[in-house]
Design brief:
This protein has 18 helices and 14 strands. The protein is α+β, with helices and mostly antiparallel strands and 610 residues long.
Length: 610
């Protein structure tokens, strides 16, 4: 048998013995105060006279049980004091002491009503109405105790239920105390001499009874929900003890002859206090004989040290204190600091976290087993280290990939520019070799056109060569830099007779490969304008971080259709490797081209060969 089971068994035996003693005392008291039937003349009595009972009266009504009620009030006070010493929960303790206070006041009210000479029927009725103050608040306090024991009192619905219960109880008391004005609880004629025996229950009475029954049912239901499985049998015993009392209350409400002659107030108080005491004794409500017992049963390694180093309290689970921990705890105890917690660990006891709390007269030392936390921390540290090494490898791999991509991009761009420049240089050599030698006007005009084309080819080679240099130093083209390139090209075109203007509007930056493709497309359009009559060329470049678009609009008075078709074919060839799209509109006197390219993928493209 475990220690907890042994303690539970000893409590059951102690409760049974206490119940037997109380029964014996009750029998003796009934003999003393006259609640038992009158003995026969030939029989013997331990005590034949009692100052508390009227002569020749052996009934069990309120007047005949005055002695028991006189004893009940101090007994309730003593029970309230014992609750104050035993109950470990402050809220439940206050509510149970409230029950004890209400019981004492109830007995005092009954004694005043039946033992004091009162000639006013209205005052007697008011004293009768006062019975319902403890009768209303006692089940309410029991319900609140069970709600607290079940650890449900902080729930929103429990807070709402508590407020509704208080409001309902207050309304019942107000309804009963003002019954003389409306007679909605009890209906009687106070002018009759027998009005205390002849009355009728109205709806207010049955409403109050329904509230009491609901609160007691909630009390037992919450105790059942809050208790451990092995205590469910105890709750069944409490219910079995409460069932006869419920039958007795029902008989009293129905005015049964047996119940109506008894002292209902005394019996009600005794049963309620007995049930609450059993709930405390068997652990349904938090109760310990002494606070030291409550402290020692805590499932913690906790010790309270005095300033001289002696152990004032220790739980059953407390272990030995290492010397370094003991010294530091003493320093905290002697420093008298209570507003902070000192946390530390020592190698003497691995996987243990010590917390020192400053308390009045010393310090509390709590040792917590953090083995699971240390294991999780070790696993997390190893995982973090693996992730750190993986990140280093990924960063190195990313750097290598970026460098390879840059080298491949440079190689593609260099190959594309090298091929384009090689073709342009060969074409320039062919033009220079074929220049007319004569001095006639036609030959001079032809020579001028050929030299103009050579000049345009030289400018093209210059721009393409600059792209190779920029790829190594500054490969990104922003708005200002691209505007400068297009302005220089427009200036070159204007110098050879093409009216040209360029506008650049960019939100991001363009790689050199994209600029190379745009410049190839620009040269294709410019090669048409060079041999047209009265050419006007407008360029507009716009884009964001994902796409770039160049629009070229050429208007002429007259142009060569063959050159126009050749330019369109060159534009399509330029965009073939760059995954760009071309929108082209041709007419005998105009050319409108819209080139759209993805910035991220355009680095794989290059200019077409001419």
């Amino acid at each position: 048998m475990s220690r907890s089971d042994d303690t539970f068994a000893r409590k059951v035996i102690a409760g049974a013995c206490a119940g037997g003693v109380l029964l014996c005392l009750a029998l003796l008291a009934m003999q003393v105060f006259g609640s038992m039937p009158s003995p026969k003349p030939s029989s013997t009595m331990l005590l034949r006279w009692s100052p508390f009972r009227p002569p020749d009266s052996y009934g069990v009504g309120p007047s005949a049980t005055s002695g028991f009620m006189i004893l009940m009030a101090p007994a309730a006070a003593l029970w309230g004091f014992s609750v104050h010493m035993r109950c470990s929960d402050a809220q439940i303790r206050h509510r149970l002491k409230g029950v004890a206070l209400l019981v004492g006041l109830w007995m005092l009210d009954v004694l005043i009503k039946y033992r004091c000479p009162i000639n006013s029927p209205q005052l007697i009725a008011f004293l009768w109405y006062l019975y319902y103050v403890p009768m209303t608040f006692i089940p309410l306090l029991c319900l609140l105790c069970a709600l607290r024991a079940a650890a449900l009192d902080a729930r929103p619905w429990a807070v709402f239920l508590r407020r509704v219960a208080w409001a309902t109880s207050s309304a019942i008391i107000a309804l009963v105390l003002t019954n003389g004005m409306h007679l909605q609880v009890f209906s009687f004629d106070i002018s009759r001499p027998d009005w205390q025996e002849v009355y009728v229950y109205n709806w207010g009475y049955w409403f109050a009874v329904a509230v009491y029954v609901a609160e007691y049912m909630g009390f037992f239901a919450l105790l059942l929900a809050a208790s451990r499985r092995r205590l469910h049998g105890v709750i069944a015993l409490l219910v079995m003890a409460a069932v006869p009392f419920v039958a007795y209350c029902l008989m009293y409400a129905l005015r049964h002859e047996f119940a109506i002659k008894t002292n209902f107030s005394l019996n009600y108080s005794l049963i309620v206090v007995t049930l609450l005491e059993l709930a405390l004794d068997f652990g349904l409500l938090p109760s310990y004989s002494w606070h030291g017992e409550a402290f020692s049963r805590l499932p913690l390694d906790l010790k309270v040290l005095e300033r001289d180093g002696s152990v004032a309290f220790a739980t059953n689970s407390a272990g030995p204190v290492p010397a370094p921990v003991f010294d530091l705890t003493l320093r905290v105890a002697r420093s008298r600091t209570r507003d902070r917690v000192t946390r530390f660990r020592t190698s003497a006891i691995p996987h243990t976290l010590f917390k020192v709390y400053g308390v009045s007269g010393g310090a509390a030392l709590l040792a917590e087993d953090v083995t699971l936390l240390d294991e999780r921390r070790r696993v997390l540290t190893e995982r973090q280290e693996r992730l750190r090494r993986s990140n280093e490898v990924l960063r190195h791999e990313s750097g290598v990939r970026r460098e390879l991509w840059r080298l491949e991009s440079e190689e593609r761009l260099l190959s594309s520019i090298e091929g384009s420049i090689s073709d342009k240089v060969s074409h320039m050599r062919e033009l220079l070799a074929a220049l007319p030698k004569g001095s006639e006007a036609g030959e001079r005009a032809q020579r001028r056109d050929m030299l103009t084309e050579v000049k345009l080819l030289v400018a093209y080679c210059k721009r393409k060569g600059a792209l190779v240099l920029s790829e190594r130093s500054d490969p990104e083209f922003d708005r200002d830099r691209l505007q400068l390139v297009f302005n220089e090209t427009a200036s070159d075109l204007r110098s050879i007779g093409v009216d040209c203007a360029a506008v650049v509007n960019l939100d991001g930056e363009l790689p050199s490969a994209v600029v190379s493709v745009l410049y190839d497309c620009l040269y294709d359009v410019a090669s048409v304008a060079l041999f047209a009559v009265d050419p006007i060329l407008m360029l507009f470049v716009s884009g964001d971080e994902r796409h770039v678009e160049m629009r070229a609009a050429l208007d002429v008075a007259q142009m060569d259709a063959a050159r126009l078709e050749a330019a369109a074919a060159s534009l399509r060839e330029d965009l073939k490797g760059s995954r760009g799209t071309l929108s082209l509109e041709l007419s005998p006197t105009s050319l409108n081209a819209a080139i759209r390219m993805p910035v991220g993928d355009a680095a794989r493209g290059g200019g077409g060969d001419k």
